[in-house]
């Protein structure tokens, strides 16, 4: 589910939630029902299917939202998102959190003061007390966020040298890869001469599916001709193939994760 492009929202501002849940063979299903849930309670939606709009946010509209899609006897739920509502002179807005490695991060400081012309309002941005570069109309932009970009961000709003207010937000960034697992078939103990198939299995924290590069390692050293596919084959097991195997996955530069090691060894032949 997608939340408002910016969070928090001001009181009396409008925000829209959009349900994005993927169903297999959805094009063959005609009866689709969307449900929106806030803090465990179902909401009534009068907007277009798959959308829930709050025309003028109030403090009680803050909470954790999720949506569910029912179709063909199947129900799937989205990830939940937190929506915050503020009645403050200055707010620092970010995309819905948590962010995932590779997401675009934009921080926008906004101020409202009925006595001050918006043209006379200036801003300053900081991360962990370090001054940040920004554009007046678009704020601070990080095209592809990384784990190192997590932390406390703060902004100040000024008018002719007078501080109008300040706001801060903690930005969290989760791993792009939720889990990486190496499996061996027929198993970790293999008879001499038998083939071995190693498979690198990946779970993501995002719906995005950019190309993934796979590298297999034995005892920490990359194996020749092992990059680019999710499988590595040993045609005939022998003593030189024994060792601790793992795999590393990488997508955008700097976004990688390694599996736990699996010990592959020769099995003893059964004596009859």
Describe this structure in words.
It is a single chain. The protein is mainly beta and 272 residues long. It folds into three domains: 1-85, Sandwich (Immunoglobulin-like), CATH 2.60.40.10; 88-174, Immunoglobulin-like, CATH 2.60.40; 177-266, Immunoglobulin-like (Sandwich), CATH 2.60.40.10. Helix content is 0%, strand content 49%. The protein is built from no helices and 27 strands. The strands form eight sheets. Strands 20, 22, 23, 25, 26 and 27 form a six-stranded mixed beta sheet that branches. Strands 3, 4, 6, 7 and 8 form a five-stranded antiparallel beta sheet that branches. One of its GO terms (molecular function) is transmembrane signaling receptor activity.
Sheet/helix structural class: mainly beta
Shape category: elongated
Strand content: over 45%
Helix content: under 10%
Oligomer: single chain
Task: Write a compact overview of the structure shown.
This protein is mainly beta. It has strands at about 10, 15-20, 30-40, 40-45, 50-55, 65-70, 75, 80-85, 85, 90-95, 100, 105-110, 120-125, 130, 140, 150-160, 160-170, 175, 175-185, 190, 195-205, 215-220, 220, 230-235, 245-250, 255-260, 260-265.
Keywords, please?
single chain, about 270 residues, mainly beta, Immunoglobulin-like, receptor
What is the strand and helix layout of this fold?
Elements: E1 9-10, E2 15-18, E3 32-38, E4 41-43, E5 51-54, E6 63-71, E7 74-77, E8 81-83, E9 85-86, E10 90-93, E11 99-100, E12 105-111, E13 121-127, E14 130-131, E15 140-142, E16 151-159, E17 162-171, E18 173-174, E19 177-185, E20 189-190, E21 196-204, E22 213-218, E23 221-222, E24 231-234, E25 243-250, E26 256-258, E27 262-266
Parallel strand pairs: 1-9, 11-18, 20-27
Antiparallel strand pairs: 2-5, 3-4, 3-6, 6-7, 6-8, 10-12, 12-15, 13-14, 13-16, 16-17, 19-21, 21-24, 22-23, 22-25, 25-26, 25-27
């Amino acid at each position: 589910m997608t939340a408002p492009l910016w969070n928090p929202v001001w009181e009396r501002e409008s925000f829209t939630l959009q349900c994005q849940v993927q169903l297999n063979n959805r094009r063959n299903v005609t009866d689709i029902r969307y449900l929106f849930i806030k803090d465990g309670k179902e909401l009534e939606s009068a907007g277009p299917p798959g959308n829930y709009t709050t025309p003028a946010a109030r403090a009680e509209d803050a909470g954790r939202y999720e949506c569910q899609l029912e179709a063909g006897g199947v129900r799937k739920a989205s990830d939940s998102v937190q929506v915050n509502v503020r009645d403050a002179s200055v707010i620092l807005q970010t995309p819905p959190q948590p962010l995932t490695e590779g997401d675009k991060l934009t921080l926008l400081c906004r101020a409202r003061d009925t006595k001050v012309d918006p043209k006379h309002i200036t801003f300053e941005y900081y991360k962990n007390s370090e001054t940040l570069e920004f554009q007046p109309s678009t704020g601070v932009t990080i095209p592809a966020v990384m784990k190192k970009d997590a932390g406390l961000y703060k902004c100040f709003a000024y008018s002719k040298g007078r501080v109008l207010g300040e706001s801060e937000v903690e930005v969290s960034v989760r791993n792009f890869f939720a889990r990486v697992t190496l499996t061996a078939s027929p198993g970790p103990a293999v008879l001499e001469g038998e083939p071995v198939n190693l498979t690198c299995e990946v779970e993501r924290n995002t719906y995005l599916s950019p190309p993934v590069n796979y590298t297999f390692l034995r005892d920490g050293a990359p194996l020749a001709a092992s990059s680019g596919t999710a499988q590595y084959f040993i045609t005939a097991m022998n003593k030189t193939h024994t060792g601790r195997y793992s795999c590393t996955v990488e997508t955008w530069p700097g976004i990688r994760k390694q599996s736990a090691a699996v010990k592959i060894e020769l099995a003893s032949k059964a004596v009859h």
